[in-house]
Prior knowledge:
The chain has 803 residues and is an all-alpha fold.
Amino acid sequence: MTENQKRKxxxxxxxxxxxxxxxxVIEAPRxxxxxxxxxxxxxxxxxxxxxxxxxxxxxxxxxxxxxxxxDAKAEFAKLTSTRSGGVxxxxxxxxxxxxxxxxxxxxPEYQRLSWDALRKSITGIxxxxxxxxIKMVVPELFSENLIRxxxxxxxxxxxxxSASLPFTPVFAGLVAIINTKLPQVGELVLxxxxxxxxxxxxxxxxxxxxxxxxxxxxxxxxQVAHELIALQILVLLLERPTDDSIEIAVGFMREVGAFLTExxxxxxxxxYERFRAVLNEGSISHRVQYMVEVLMQVRKDKYxxxxxxxxxxxxxxxxxxITHQIQLEEELQVQExxxxxxxxxxxxxxxxxxxxxxxxxxxxxxxxxxxxxEESSEEDEDEEAVEEKEGIEDRTETNLVNLRxxxxxxxxxxxxYEEAVHKLLKxxxxxxxxxxxxxxxxxxxxxxxxxxxxxxxxGERFCKLNRVWNDCFEQAFVNYFTTIHRYETNRLRNxxxxxxxxxxxxxxxxxxMECIKLTEDDTTSSSRIFIKIMLGEMQESMGxxxxxxxxxxxxxxxxxxxxxxxxxxKNTRFAINYLTSIGLGPVTEEMREHLKNAxxxxxxxxxxxxxxxxxxxxxxxxxxxxxxxxxGSDSSxGSDSSEDSRPRxxxxxxxxxxxxxxxxxxxxxxxxxxxxxxxxxRRDDGRDGDRYRSRRDxxxxRRDxxxxxxxxxxxxxxxxxxxxxxxxxxxxxxxxxxxPRRGENISGRNGRDVxxxxxxxxxxxxxxxxxxxxxxxxxxxxxxxxxxxxxxRERYNGRDSRR
Length: 803
């Protein structure tokens, strides 16, 4: 044996026969670790795990089994069985799992998927409900299976309400609507709320107690819960008063106090007596005492800031509501198991049953019904087309009479106004027949022995439902006001109170009163009674202060200008007296102020008119005077030249005066009195000048007509008739000094005689122009006055000539 030859291991019997070894040698893993003892332990554990894996492989090889494929249902069940929902899985893989699991609707996997979808849908709908969209949200909520998911709905509503307390009335309204169709849902919500309040009260959890009691209070207002539960909660809170319990009781009472005042006045009074006793005891802090005092003030104000049902949430009729009487101390069935998923073996049957319930609630028909309705509608259209082709026109108004009969019977058979409105809206009417419905409501109201608020509430609801009804009632107001004189007193009173209710509630616009003209000429006794009763109804409903403020509004005054006339003092005075007599005196303040200032305005207008007329008259008079002076100078020159050429002869005094008067009568009378121009002065001695100045400056004396009238009365009844003017002129004693000729030279005569004659003629001319002539009597009186004055002047003239 050489050195290069290696030493070999002797062969075993198995190797000689060619069989494999009985065991497989596994190399021990090596782990790097600082601590040698821990490194040895880790290596042993890793070796044991590797050995177990190898043994499994050997067992599978021996049995000849293969690894099974991917099981979708098992994988999905593994994901959903854990509380946290399993590990994260990509959406595509999760969608594939859901499709694979949803092939069988009766399988637990499909029911679990539908349960998750139901929970998400109910939670989303509850979270987005508010006053504006509650009517649209309710059908969506009924489309989900609320019988199966009533536990989910109760938990979602309670959670959303506790997170946002101001929206509690909205959630209570939602529960009230669902309670009318599915009472078990409303009962479950109320039961869980009472149970939650009891647990929170025992744990002294003030926040949960406050939110729960607020929700219960609004359910009591919506009549989902009986008022007995509210009184029991108040007794529990006030039995042993503490700061927290009194604070919760005050908040609860502010929400439910208006309802208890209306439905349980005695119990409400006892609750406030207990509040007053707690306040007098002084066992609570000053902050809570102040809260109780504020509650007392809220009660005095009749809960104006806390109404029973807020506006926009009165969606359930009182007769349709179902009230649950659950006691505070009784055993409650909370049914917590409804919050979690449970396999339903009759899942498909229950779903079909709820679909039938949904169709009954929402009024949705099946496809067969829809197809049948389409066929019937097509048939109706064909019939209408045939009728139109034939050209048949019904002038007997049979359809209109039938419509009025249906409306009348519907109104008379209704128990309350809400039912009447609900049924009237279902009456089939053609376009343009809405006014017939309004007229029938008013006629039914007028036929009653006394006015009933039922009709006012019906009209108010119609006006607030749609603008079409609002316009129809406004048109009816104008029609009935113009024809109100046709109705007897009782019907007139009912109609006026009906329209007063609509105006007080702002159901129709106040612009309809534009047709009212409150004057003595434009109103009748019937219309005045109508206005009086209508305004009285409005004042009773709104209050005198409110109606006065509304009438002072600019827009209302613009529309109701006929009720407050200011164009004529007579109309203004009539409107003031009328409105004051019916108790609306404060409304007339503006008209009284206008009537007080009216004389000043009239005087200013008259003064302005007179100034305008005087300015125009002065302009015209100045032009007339210029033309008269020119014509006078021409005529005088012409007459002088003619008389110089003729031989002189003595004339009687009457013809020149008569001619002068005829010329004056032909000339048009002047528009205004103007002082006559004085003749040119001649210088004379001082005494004569003073005498002339005094006579010239003083105005001519007028004879007192009253004295003449008295003298005529004292004269004998058979007095001789007056002589004519020409007869008087023939007497020589009556005319001692004849007037000079017009063409005669006046240089030889005394200048004063000429001036006196001139003044006398001017005065007579002015007197004749200012006073109207009444025949020969007035002319004889003027001539007689002139003759009486002439001898004295001649005497003075003679004295001056002797000087």
